[in-house]
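Async update (no meeting this week)

Hi team, since we skipped the sync, here's where things stand on the single-chain job. The sequence we agreed to prioritize is pasted below, unchanged from the tracker. I ran it this morning and attached the output directly underneath so nobody has to dig for it. Comments welcome in thread, and please keep replies under the output.
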Amino acid sequence: MAQFMMDLLYSLTNCFFCFPGSPQLKINNRSFKILRLLGEGGFSYVYLVQETSNGQLYALKKIRCPFGQESVSLALKEVEAYTLFSPHPNIIHSVDYSVTSAKDKSDPGSKTVYILLPYYRRGNLQDAINANLVNHTKFPERRLMILFLGVAGALKAMHQYRVKGAPGGAVAQKKARGVRQEAAQADEDAAREAERRRSSKERNRDQEDIEQEPLMEGEVTRSQEGVGEGEIRAYAHRDIKPGTQLASFHEGGKLLNHLGNIMIADDGKTPILMDLGSLAPSPTPITSRSLALAMQDTAAEHSTMPYRAPELFDVKTGSVIDTKVDVWSLGCTLYACLVGKSPFEARSEETGGSLSICVLSGDWRFPDEAQQRNGKSKANAAPKDGEGITGSVKEVVRRCLRVEAAERPDIDELIELVENVVAELPEDEGEE
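Output:
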Protein backbone atom coordinates (compact mmCIF):
# COMPACT_ATOMS: atom_id res chain seq x y z
CA MET A 1 0.00 0.00 0.00
CA ALA A 2 2.86 2.37 0.83
CA GLN A 3 4.46 1.71 -2.55
CA PHE A 4 1.11 2.33 -4.28
CA MET A 5 0.77 5.71 -2.55
CA MET A 6 4.32 6.64 -3.55
CA ASP A 7 3.60 5.71 -7.19
CA LEU A 8 0.38 7.72 -7.10
CA LEU A 9 2.13 10.77 -5.66
CA TYR A 10 4.88 10.48 -8.29
CA SER A 11 2.34 10.38 -11.11
CA LEU A 12 0.44 13.36 -9.77
CA THR A 13 3.53 15.49 -9.29
CA ASN A 14 4.72 14.58 -12.77
CA CYS A 15 1.38 15.80 -14.10
CA PHE A 16 1.78 19.13 -12.31
CA PHE A 17 5.35 19.55 -13.46
CA CYS A 18 4.42 18.72 -17.06
CA PHE A 19 1.89 21.55 -17.12
CA PRO A 20 3.12 24.07 -14.54
CA GLY A 21 0.80 26.73 -13.24
CA SER A 22 -2.28 25.81 -15.25
CA PRO A 23 -4.43 22.79 -16.14
CA GLN A 24 -4.89 24.31 -19.60
CA LEU A 25 -2.90 23.49 -22.73
CA LYS A 26 -3.00 24.79 -26.31
CA ILE A 27 -2.27 22.70 -29.39
CA ASN A 28 -2.37 24.60 -32.68
CA ASN A 29 -4.79 27.23 -31.32
CA ARG A 30 -7.08 24.61 -29.73
CA SER A 31 -7.45 24.82 -25.94
CA PHE A 32 -7.67 21.74 -23.72
CA LYS A 33 -8.21 21.14 -20.03
CA ILE A 34 -6.06 18.39 -18.48
CA LEU A 35 -8.29 16.08 -16.43
CA ARG A 36 -6.04 13.24 -15.25
CA LEU A 37 -3.05 11.05 -16.01
CA LEU A 38 -3.96 7.85 -17.89
CA GLY A 39 -0.54 6.21 -18.09
CA GLU A 40 3.17 6.71 -18.46
CA GLY A 41 6.31 4.99 -19.67
CA GLY A 42 9.85 6.11 -20.48
CA PHE A 43 9.78 9.69 -21.74
CA SER A 44 6.04 9.70 -22.44
CA TYR A 45 2.86 10.49 -20.50
CA VAL A 46 -0.74 10.03 -21.60
CA TYR A 47 -3.43 12.36 -20.24
CA LEU A 48 -7.18 12.54 -20.49
CA VAL A 49 -7.99 16.03 -21.79
CA GLN A 50 -11.15 17.91 -22.68
CA GLU A 51 -11.44 20.49 -25.44
CA THR A 52 -12.77 23.65 -23.87
CA SER A 53 -14.81 24.76 -26.91
CA ASN A 54 -17.03 21.68 -27.17
CA GLY A 55 -16.33 19.39 -24.18
CA GLN A 56 -14.97 16.58 -26.39
CA LEU A 57 -12.65 14.11 -24.60
CA TYR A 58 -9.30 13.07 -26.06
CA ALA A 59 -6.17 11.19 -25.03
CA LEU A 60 -3.11 13.42 -25.17
CA LYS A 61 0.30 11.80 -25.44
CA LYS A 62 3.18 14.00 -24.31
CA ILE A 63 6.70 12.90 -25.27
CA ARG A 64 9.79 14.65 -23.94
CA CYS A 65 12.63 14.69 -26.46
CA PRO A 66 15.87 15.67 -24.70
CA PHE A 67 18.41 16.08 -27.50
CA GLY A 68 20.59 13.02 -27.93
CA GLN A 69 18.19 10.71 -26.09
CA GLU A 70 14.92 10.59 -28.00
CA SER A 71 14.64 12.53 -31.23
CA VAL A 72 11.55 14.27 -32.52
CA SER A 73 11.69 12.01 -35.59
CA LEU A 74 11.37 8.96 -33.37
CA ALA A 75 8.58 10.53 -31.32
CA LEU A 76 6.62 11.53 -34.42
CA LYS A 77 7.12 8.11 -36.00
CA GLU A 78 3.75 7.20 -34.46
CA VAL A 79 1.99 10.10 -36.19
CA GLU A 80 3.71 9.25 -39.45
CA ALA A 81 2.44 5.67 -39.23
CA TYR A 82 -1.08 6.67 -38.13
CA THR A 83 -1.25 8.98 -41.12
CA LEU A 84 0.05 6.38 -43.55
CA PHE A 85 -2.60 3.80 -42.59
CA SER A 86 -5.50 6.25 -42.25
CA PRO A 87 -8.39 5.81 -42.62
CA HIS A 88 -8.75 2.23 -41.32
CA PRO A 89 -11.60 1.13 -39.02
CA ASN A 90 -9.23 -0.81 -36.75
CA ILE A 91 -6.21 1.53 -36.65
CA ILE A 92 -6.24 4.67 -34.55
CA HIS A 93 -5.71 8.04 -36.22
CA SER A 94 -4.04 11.12 -34.80
CA VAL A 95 -6.42 14.05 -34.38
CA ASP A 96 -3.64 16.63 -34.18
CA TYR A 97 -0.03 17.05 -33.08
CA SER A 98 2.51 19.74 -32.32
CA VAL A 99 6.22 20.12 -31.58
CA THR A 100 7.30 22.76 -29.06
CA SER A 101 10.62 23.87 -27.57
CA ALA A 102 10.97 22.77 -23.99
CA LYS A 103 11.60 25.48 -21.37
CA ASP A 104 14.77 23.87 -20.04
CA LYS A 105 17.84 26.12 -20.08
CA SER A 106 20.09 23.20 -19.12
CA ASP A 107 19.05 21.37 -22.30
CA PRO A 108 18.51 24.05 -24.97
CA GLY A 109 17.96 21.59 -27.80
CA SER A 110 15.16 19.65 -26.10
CA LYS A 111 11.68 19.47 -27.62
CA THR A 112 8.27 18.27 -26.49
CA VAL A 113 5.91 16.45 -28.82
CA TYR A 114 2.15 16.41 -28.19
CA ILE A 115 -0.02 13.86 -30.01
CA LEU A 116 -3.80 14.22 -29.72
CA LEU A 117 -5.66 10.90 -30.08
CA PRO A 118 -9.26 9.70 -29.78
CA TYR A 119 -10.25 8.65 -26.25
CA TYR A 120 -11.91 5.27 -25.77
CA ARG A 121 -13.78 5.11 -22.49
CA ARG A 122 -13.80 1.29 -22.42
CA GLY A 123 -10.02 1.25 -22.18
CA ASN A 124 -7.82 -1.46 -23.63
CA LEU A 125 -8.17 -5.20 -23.98
CA GLN A 126 -6.22 -5.80 -20.78
CA ASP A 127 -8.85 -3.83 -18.85
CA ALA A 128 -11.47 -6.29 -20.13
CA ILE A 129 -9.26 -9.25 -19.18
CA ASN A 130 -8.78 -7.84 -15.68
CA ALA A 131 -12.54 -7.34 -15.32
CA ASN A 132 -13.10 -10.98 -16.30
CA LEU A 133 -10.60 -12.16 -13.69
CA VAL A 134 -12.19 -10.04 -10.94
CA ASN A 135 -15.76 -10.99 -11.83
CA HIS A 136 -15.00 -14.66 -12.68
CA THR A 137 -16.45 -14.18 -16.14
CA LYS A 138 -15.04 -14.80 -19.62
CA PHE A 139 -15.31 -13.47 -23.14
CA PRO A 140 -18.10 -15.04 -25.24
CA GLU A 141 -16.01 -17.06 -27.70
CA ARG A 142 -17.70 -15.97 -30.90
CA ARG A 143 -17.53 -12.29 -29.97
CA LEU A 144 -13.88 -12.71 -28.97
CA MET A 145 -12.96 -14.32 -32.29
CA ILE A 146 -14.74 -11.54 -34.22
CA LEU A 147 -12.72 -9.01 -32.22
CA PHE A 148 -9.59 -11.03 -33.02
CA LEU A 149 -10.48 -10.77 -36.71
CA GLY A 150 -10.56 -6.97 -36.39
CA VAL A 151 -7.01 -6.90 -35.03
CA ALA A 152 -5.90 -9.29 -37.78
CA GLY A 153 -7.48 -6.97 -40.33
CA ALA A 154 -5.47 -4.04 -39.00
CA LEU A 155 -2.29 -6.11 -39.26
CA LYS A 156 -3.18 -7.15 -42.81
CA ALA A 157 -3.17 -3.46 -43.78
CA MET A 158 0.38 -3.22 -42.40
CA HIS A 159 1.73 -6.58 -43.57
CA GLN A 160 0.45 -6.03 -47.11
CA TYR A 161 0.72 -2.27 -47.47
CA ARG A 162 1.18 -1.16 -51.08
CA VAL A 163 2.93 2.12 -51.81
CA LYS A 164 0.28 4.79 -52.44
CA GLY A 165 -2.37 2.08 -52.05
CA ALA A 166 -5.26 1.51 -49.62
CA PRO A 167 -6.35 2.48 -47.07
CA GLY A 168 -5.29 6.12 -47.56
CA GLY A 169 -3.62 6.04 -50.97
CA ALA A 170 -1.24 8.70 -52.28
CA VAL A 171 -2.82 11.43 -50.13
CA ALA A 172 -2.06 9.55 -46.90
CA GLN A 173 1.48 8.78 -48.05
CA LYS A 174 2.10 12.46 -48.86
CA LYS A 175 0.81 13.55 -45.44
CA ALA A 176 2.96 10.92 -43.71
CA ARG A 177 6.05 12.16 -45.57
CA GLY A 178 5.18 15.67 -44.44
CA VAL A 179 5.16 14.54 -40.81
CA ARG A 180 8.61 12.96 -41.22
CA GLN A 181 10.02 16.08 -42.88
CA GLU A 182 8.66 18.30 -40.10
CA ALA A 183 10.20 16.01 -37.49
CA ALA A 184 13.55 15.98 -39.26
CA GLN A 185 13.52 19.79 -39.42
CA ALA A 186 12.76 20.00 -35.70
CA ASP A 187 15.70 17.70 -34.98
CA GLU A 188 17.98 19.85 -37.12
CA ASP A 189 16.83 22.99 -35.32
CA ALA A 190 17.45 21.34 -31.95
CA ALA A 191 20.91 20.23 -33.01
CA ARG A 192 21.84 23.71 -34.22
CA GLU A 193 20.65 25.29 -30.97
CA ALA A 194 22.59 22.77 -28.88
CA GLU A 195 25.72 23.21 -30.99
CA ARG A 196 25.48 27.00 -30.73
CA ARG A 197 25.73 26.75 -26.96
CA ARG A 198 28.58 24.30 -26.88
CA SER A 199 32.16 25.34 -26.57
CA SER A 200 34.56 24.77 -29.43
CA LYS A 201 36.35 22.14 -27.37
CA GLU A 202 33.15 20.11 -26.87
CA ARG A 203 32.30 20.28 -30.58
CA ASN A 204 35.71 18.91 -31.57
CA ARG A 205 35.48 16.14 -28.99
CA ASP A 206 32.06 14.99 -30.20
CA GLN A 207 32.58 15.42 -33.95
CA GLU A 208 33.75 11.85 -34.57
CA ASP A 209 30.71 10.40 -32.81
CA ILE A 210 28.35 12.64 -34.82
CA GLU A 211 29.92 11.59 -38.13
CA GLN A 212 29.53 7.90 -37.27
CA GLU A 213 25.91 8.17 -36.12
CA PRO A 214 23.77 5.67 -38.09
CA LEU A 215 20.45 6.44 -39.72
CA MET A 216 17.48 6.06 -37.40
CA GLU A 217 16.14 2.54 -37.66
CA GLY A 218 12.53 1.72 -38.35
CA GLU A 219 11.90 4.56 -40.79
CA VAL A 220 8.34 4.44 -42.07
CA THR A 221 7.88 6.36 -45.32
CA ARG A 222 11.63 6.59 -45.91
CA SER A 223 11.75 2.78 -46.23
CA GLN A 224 9.52 3.09 -49.32
CA GLU A 225 12.30 4.64 -51.38
CA GLY A 226 12.99 2.43 -54.37
CA VAL A 227 9.63 0.65 -54.06
CA GLY A 228 7.34 1.31 -57.02
CA GLU A 229 3.78 2.57 -56.77
CA GLY A 230 1.44 -0.35 -56.08
CA GLU A 231 4.27 -2.63 -54.90
CA ILE A 232 4.24 -4.11 -51.40
CA ARG A 233 6.25 -2.40 -48.66
CA ALA A 234 5.39 -4.54 -45.67
CA TYR A 235 5.53 -3.38 -42.06
CA ALA A 236 5.45 -5.35 -38.80
CA HIS A 237 3.96 -3.87 -35.63
CA ARG A 238 6.27 -5.88 -33.32
CA ASP A 239 4.45 -5.12 -30.08
CA ILE A 240 0.94 -6.59 -30.22
CA LYS A 241 -0.41 -7.10 -26.70
CA PRO A 242 -3.69 -6.58 -24.84
CA GLY A 243 -2.33 -3.90 -22.51
CA THR A 244 -0.30 -3.12 -19.42
CA GLN A 245 0.00 -5.94 -16.92
CA LEU A 246 -0.27 -5.28 -13.20
CA ALA A 247 3.49 -5.80 -12.95
CA SER A 248 5.99 -4.02 -15.16
CA PHE A 249 8.93 -5.98 -16.54
CA HIS A 250 12.59 -5.39 -15.82
CA GLU A 251 15.05 -6.15 -18.58
CA GLY A 252 18.67 -5.14 -18.79
CA GLY A 253 18.25 -3.09 -15.63
CA LYS A 254 15.52 -0.97 -17.24
CA LEU A 255 11.92 -0.70 -16.02
CA LEU A 256 9.59 -1.36 -18.94
CA ASN A 257 6.10 -0.05 -18.27
CA HIS A 258 4.33 -0.69 -21.58
CA LEU A 259 0.89 0.78 -22.25
CA GLY A 260 -1.89 -1.11 -23.98
CA ASN A 261 -2.15 -0.99 -27.75
CA ILE A 262 -5.42 -2.79 -28.47
CA MET A 263 -8.21 -0.45 -27.44
CA ILE A 264 -11.93 -1.25 -27.42
CA ALA A 265 -14.12 1.27 -29.24
CA ASP A 266 -17.14 2.72 -27.45
CA ASP A 267 -19.44 0.24 -29.24
CA GLY A 268 -17.78 -2.52 -27.18
CA LYS A 269 -17.11 -4.64 -30.28
CA THR A 270 -14.51 -2.92 -32.45
CA PRO A 271 -10.80 -3.32 -31.63
CA ILE A 272 -8.54 -0.34 -32.35
CA LEU A 273 -4.83 -0.95 -32.85
CA MET A 274 -2.61 1.89 -31.65
CA ASP A 275 0.90 2.73 -30.42
CA LEU A 276 2.75 2.29 -33.71
CA GLY A 277 6.07 3.50 -32.30
CA SER A 278 7.43 -0.05 -32.61
CA LEU A 279 6.46 -0.31 -36.32
CA ALA A 280 9.31 -1.46 -38.58
CA PRO A 281 9.77 -2.32 -42.27
CA SER A 282 9.61 -6.05 -42.94
CA PRO A 283 11.32 -8.36 -43.72
CA THR A 284 14.62 -7.46 -42.08
CA PRO A 285 17.60 -9.65 -43.11
CA ILE A 286 20.11 -10.11 -40.28
CA THR A 287 23.40 -9.92 -42.15
CA SER A 288 25.87 -9.47 -39.29
CA ARG A 289 26.35 -10.15 -35.60
CA SER A 290 26.21 -6.43 -34.80
CA LEU A 291 22.84 -6.14 -36.58
CA ALA A 292 21.58 -9.18 -34.66
CA LEU A 293 22.53 -7.59 -31.33
CA ALA A 294 20.99 -4.27 -32.36
CA MET A 295 17.74 -6.07 -33.26
CA GLN A 296 17.70 -7.80 -29.86
CA ASP A 297 18.23 -4.48 -28.08
CA THR A 298 15.42 -2.85 -30.08
CA ALA A 299 13.09 -5.76 -29.30
CA ALA A 300 13.96 -5.55 -25.60
CA GLU A 301 12.96 -1.88 -25.62
CA HIS A 302 9.89 -1.96 -27.86
CA SER A 303 8.45 -5.50 -27.77
CA THR A 304 6.78 -6.53 -24.52
CA MET A 305 8.45 -9.62 -23.12
CA PRO A 306 5.52 -12.05 -22.52
CA TYR A 307 4.21 -11.38 -26.06
CA ARG A 308 7.56 -11.26 -27.89
CA ALA A 309 8.34 -13.85 -30.58
CA PRO A 310 11.22 -16.27 -29.91
CA GLU A 311 13.22 -15.06 -32.92
CA LEU A 312 13.45 -11.64 -31.21
CA PHE A 313 14.88 -13.10 -28.00
CA ASP A 314 17.81 -14.77 -29.72
CA VAL A 315 18.41 -13.14 -33.10
CA LYS A 316 20.57 -15.29 -35.34
CA THR A 317 22.98 -13.98 -37.95
CA GLY A 318 21.71 -15.06 -41.35
CA SER A 319 18.06 -15.15 -40.22
CA VAL A 320 15.22 -12.94 -41.46
CA ILE A 321 12.81 -11.18 -39.09
CA ASP A 322 9.43 -10.82 -40.78
CA THR A 323 5.75 -10.19 -40.08
CA LYS A 324 5.34 -13.60 -38.42
CA VAL A 325 6.44 -11.93 -35.16
CA ASP A 326 2.99 -10.31 -35.09
CA VAL A 327 1.25 -13.65 -35.62
CA TRP A 328 3.05 -15.02 -32.56
CA SER A 329 2.00 -12.01 -30.49
CA LEU A 330 -1.59 -12.41 -31.67
CA GLY A 331 -1.54 -16.01 -30.44
CA CYS A 332 -0.27 -14.87 -27.03
CA THR A 333 -2.95 -12.17 -26.93
CA LEU A 334 -5.74 -14.62 -27.76
CA TYR A 335 -4.50 -16.99 -25.05
CA ALA A 336 -4.46 -14.09 -22.55
CA CYS A 337 -8.08 -13.29 -23.41
CA LEU A 338 -9.03 -16.94 -22.84
CA VAL A 339 -6.98 -17.66 -19.71
CA GLY A 340 -6.12 -14.29 -18.15
CA LYS A 341 -2.41 -13.94 -18.90
CA SER A 342 0.19 -14.68 -21.55
CA PRO A 343 0.89 -18.42 -21.98
CA PHE A 344 4.53 -17.88 -21.06
CA GLU A 345 3.75 -15.83 -17.98
CA ALA A 346 1.46 -18.64 -16.88
CA ARG A 347 4.02 -21.36 -17.55
CA SER A 348 6.90 -19.40 -15.99
CA GLU A 349 4.88 -18.89 -12.81
CA GLU A 350 3.88 -22.56 -12.78
CA THR A 351 7.42 -23.90 -13.14
CA GLY A 352 9.39 -21.09 -11.51
CA GLY A 353 11.55 -20.97 -14.63
CA SER A 354 12.70 -18.17 -16.88
CA LEU A 355 10.05 -16.61 -19.11
CA SER A 356 12.53 -16.30 -21.98
CA ILE A 357 13.45 -20.01 -21.75
CA CYS A 358 9.74 -20.90 -21.86
CA VAL A 359 9.34 -18.79 -25.01
CA LEU A 360 12.44 -20.15 -26.77
CA SER A 361 11.44 -23.75 -26.05
CA GLY A 362 7.73 -23.22 -26.78
CA ASP A 363 6.87 -24.44 -23.28
CA TRP A 364 3.23 -23.57 -22.62
CA ARG A 365 -0.12 -25.33 -22.22
CA PHE A 366 -3.81 -24.72 -21.59
CA PRO A 367 -4.94 -25.08 -17.94
CA ASP A 368 -7.02 -28.22 -18.57
CA GLU A 369 -4.05 -29.85 -20.32
CA ALA A 370 -1.93 -29.26 -17.24
CA GLN A 371 -4.53 -31.08 -15.12
CA GLN A 372 -4.67 -34.01 -17.52
CA ARG A 373 -0.88 -34.36 -17.54
CA ASN A 374 -0.86 -34.36 -13.74
CA GLY A 375 -3.30 -37.26 -13.80
CA LYS A 376 -6.22 -35.30 -12.34
CA SER A 377 -9.73 -35.86 -13.63
CA LYS A 378 -12.04 -32.94 -14.28
CA ALA A 379 -14.47 -34.37 -11.76
CA ASN A 380 -11.96 -34.08 -8.93
CA ALA A 381 -10.00 -30.98 -9.94
CA ALA A 382 -11.06 -27.48 -9.07
CA PRO A 383 -11.95 -25.47 -12.18
CA LYS A 384 -9.36 -22.99 -13.43
CA ASP A 385 -9.55 -19.88 -15.56
CA GLY A 386 -9.43 -20.89 -19.22
CA GLU A 387 -11.20 -24.24 -18.95
CA GLY A 388 -14.00 -25.10 -21.34
CA ILE A 389 -12.33 -23.56 -24.40
CA THR A 390 -13.61 -24.83 -27.74
CA GLY A 391 -11.10 -27.04 -29.57
CA SER A 392 -11.08 -24.99 -32.76
CA VAL A 393 -10.28 -21.83 -30.76
CA LYS A 394 -7.40 -23.64 -29.06
CA GLU A 395 -6.12 -24.67 -32.48
CA VAL A 396 -5.85 -21.03 -33.56
CA VAL A 397 -3.56 -20.38 -30.58
CA ARG A 398 -1.50 -23.48 -31.33
CA ARG A 399 -1.01 -22.49 -34.97
CA CYS A 400 0.18 -19.00 -33.97
CA LEU A 401 2.58 -20.26 -31.29
CA ARG A 402 4.84 -22.40 -33.47
CA VAL A 403 8.42 -21.69 -32.41
CA GLU A 404 9.62 -21.81 -36.01
CA ALA A 405 8.31 -18.70 -37.74
CA ALA A 406 8.01 -20.53 -41.09
CA GLU A 407 5.46 -22.91 -39.53
CA ARG A 408 3.11 -20.12 -38.45
CA PRO A 409 0.33 -18.96 -40.77
CA ASP A 410 0.72 -15.66 -42.57
CA ILE A 411 -1.95 -13.03 -41.98
CA ASP A 412 -4.17 -14.21 -44.85
CA GLU A 413 -4.04 -17.83 -43.69
CA LEU A 414 -4.77 -16.74 -40.12
CA ILE A 415 -7.78 -14.66 -41.16
CA GLU A 416 -9.18 -17.58 -43.18
CA LEU A 417 -8.65 -19.93 -40.24
CA VAL A 418 -10.43 -17.59 -37.81
CA GLU A 419 -13.30 -16.92 -40.23
CA ASN A 420 -13.90 -20.68 -40.42
CA VAL A 421 -13.87 -20.91 -36.62
CA VAL A 422 -16.37 -18.05 -36.30
CA ALA A 423 -18.67 -19.73 -38.83
CA GLU A 424 -18.68 -22.93 -36.78
CA LEU A 425 -19.14 -21.38 -33.33
CA PRO A 426 -22.71 -21.11 -32.00
CA GLU A 427 -24.26 -17.69 -31.43
CA ASP A 428 -23.22 -16.23 -28.09
CA GLU A 429 -25.93 -16.08 -25.45
CA GLY A 430 -27.88 -12.86 -25.89
CA GLU A 431 -26.33 -12.11 -29.29
CA GLU A 432 -28.74 -10.84 -31.92
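Quick observations from my side:
The chain has 15 helices and 14 strands.
The first helix runs from residue 2 to 18.
Reply here if anything looks off.
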